[in-house]
Amino acid sequence: MIKNDIEKVLISEQQLSDIIDSLAERITNDYKDSERKLVFVVILKGSIPFATELMKRITLPLEIEVMKVSSYGSGTVSGGNVKIVLDIDRPDISSCDFLIIEDIIDSGNTLSYLTGYLMHKGAKSVRTCTLLDKPSRRVVDFVPDYTGIEIPDEFVVGYGLDYDERYRALP
Ligand code: IMP
Ligand code: MG
User: Fold this and answer.
1) Would residue 21 show up in a list of annotated catalytic residues for this protein?
2) What residues contact 124, with CB distance under 8 A and at least 6 apart?
3) Would the pTM of this model clear 0.90, i.e. be above it?
4) Lower Cβ count inside 10 Å, N or C end of the chain?
5) For 80-135, how does the pLDDT look when each residue is reduced to its tens digit (9 = 90+)?
6) What pLDDT, in 10s, does the model give residues 6-34?
7) Ligand 2 centroid distance, CA of 26 (Å)
8) Residue from 11, 67, 74, 103 whose mutation best tests the ligand 1 pocket (most atoms within 8 A of CB)
9) What's the CA gap between 142 and 75, in Å, rounded?
């Protein structure tokens, strides 16, 4: 039984839903007057459930891209070296507002690297949205534009988050 592996429920389904409602409202409000294309950059694989729920609640036109990164680490340790495994490829980068969607920010390496990467590619704007934030673990100085909820330094799984690829499908 998968449930026997789980110590406790940190955030309930209802809480997640409420958090995502308020993020969607903020994002909709912040981008409603932009004339550029709003492009979600969904970071595979952990952000899939979060991005899917979030996009349905944003009442603006938006496009979807995916990226995949690996950060030379396994299990509960993430490394500092971010490598892009799947990149976005579109000719109109300079006319897009990118919003990177992450499941969790830990050291900050991934989001800080990706933000710089997309800006370097010529993006008009790059912001970041993370469902979970473990601020006590930060290694690089990075504050996401949209944070769902801050959590203590505990290893969490479910709702997209994995431990060696397991538990992503937990609600
Ligand atoms: P960062 O680059 O250290 O900020 O790490 C971000 C990535 O580390 C996330 O996209 C997750 O894949 C992974 N990660 C960090 N903390 C956890 C956790 O508690 N559970 C599952 N994955 C985590
Ligand atoms: Mg991951």
Assistant:
1) no
2) 36, 94, 95, 96, 97
3) yes
4) N
5) 789 999 999 999 999 999 999 999 999 999 999 999 999 999 999 999 999 999 99
6) 999 999 999 999 999 999 999 999 999 99
7) 25
8) 103
9) 23
pLDDT at 75 over 70: no
Which one of 97, 106, 133, 164 is the catalytic residue?
106
**Contact status, residue 96 vs residue 36, Cβ threshold 8 Å:** yes
CA 10 remoteness from chain centre: 18
Token digits of residue 73: 């680490």
Is residue 107 within 8 A of residue 134, CB to CB? The reply is no
49 lines ligand 1 (CB under 6 A): no
Is residue 99 within 8 A of residue 37, CB to CB? The reply is no
CA of 14 to the centre of ligand 2 (A): 23
The size of the chain, in residues, is 171
Ligand 1 neighbour 125 (Cβ under 6 A): no
